[in-house]
Amino acid sequence: MNNKTKQNFNYIFFLLLLILFSPIYSSSCSSTKKVRTQNINKVVETAKSYRGTPYRYGGTTRSGMDCSALVYHSFYSVGITMPRTSDAQSKEGKKVTGNNLEKGDLLFFATGKKKKQVTHAGIVTDTSKGNILFIHSSTSLGVTEDNLSQAYWNKAFLFGRRIF
């Protein structure tokens, strides 16, 4: 076999491999997206199952929980162990700007006197109709959903993080 024939053979062999394995890669990608979507939905469903749970600073149960415990338990439902404080949680995943937020993203707020210090966290539950709804554990209402466009939350919002 001369060099040109070897090159042609290698080229054809490579193309055949590419053709054979491209459907596997394609189905693998769509399968990964499906699992991601399922995990996001499970995180949000878990968070919503805590609606009405009273707020308790440092609390981690249905008898009372704080915002970081809600995040912790919601992500734990899909096998992701998050840190236990909102400040530590704010360092996980990758940063997301407000106009790119998606369902399942984490939101971080400065609700204390320090304007840039993370003191509160929530989980995006819906981004349809131009609204960003999120669930969190409020000191006054317990676990509840709010709209990020509300003046208080919009002013306190620092950034989002994407875990998935």
Automatic annotation (TrEMBL):
Lineage: superkingdom: Bacteria
Keyword set includes Hydrolase: yes
Keyword Protease set for record: yes
UniProt keyword annotations, A-Z: Hydrolase, Protease, Thiol protease
Record-annotated NlpC/P60 domain positions: 37-164
Pfam families referenced in this protein's UniProt entry, alphabetically: NLPC_P60
Molecular function as annotated in GO: cysteine-type peptidase activity
UniProt cross-references to InterPro entries, sorted A to Z: NLP_P60_dom, Papain-like_cys_pep_sf, Peptidase_C40
GO biological process: proteolysis
SUPFAM superfamilies: Cysteine proteinases
Record family assignment: Belongs to the peptidase C40 family.
Protein name as it appears in the record: Cell wall-associated hydrolases (Invasion-associated proteins)
Organism: Aquiflexum balticum DSM 16537
